[in-house]
Specification:
It is built from three helices and no strands. With 97 residues, the chain is mainly α. The protein has a domain at 16-69. Helix 1 runs antiparallel to helix 3. The longest helix has 18 residues, at 18-35. It starts with 17 loop residues before the first helix and ends in a 28-residue tail after the last helix. The model has no long low-confidence stretch (mean pLDDT 79).
Length: 97
């Protein structure tokens, strides 16, 4: 039986992951590439000195692979403070009427 897939623990912060950003960049670049006509695509390839669009696709794939294997250290969490540890506000120094 195939295990049911589940989300990672910190899925709400996935937008900050390097691989998610690289994949989004690749998807955006691919969508923009498809909107160009043949002459524009040829001009972009000539500008970068490429013969085909395969090299940028491979480079994006390799960048995403790099992002998956690099370990990023999570900064230590700030210690939680109990309400009694917080500074108190002094009483109102204005005279009462």
């Amino acid at each position: 039986m195939v295990p049911k897939p589940s989300l990672i623990d910190d899925w709400r912060s996935a937008w900050r992951f390097l691989t998610v950003n690289l994949a989004g960049l690749g998807a955006g670049a691919g969508a923009a590439w498809l909107m160009l006509n043949d002459a524009q695509q040829a001009a972009v390839l000539a500008f970068f000195g490429l013969k085909s669009a395969g090299a940028p696709a491979v480079a994006m794939f390799l960048a995403i692979m790099f992002g998956r294997v690099v370990k990023f250290e999570r900064p230590p969490a700030a210690p939680e403070t109990a309400p009694e540890d917080l500074p108190t506000v002094p009483d109102d120094p204005r005279p009462q009427q």
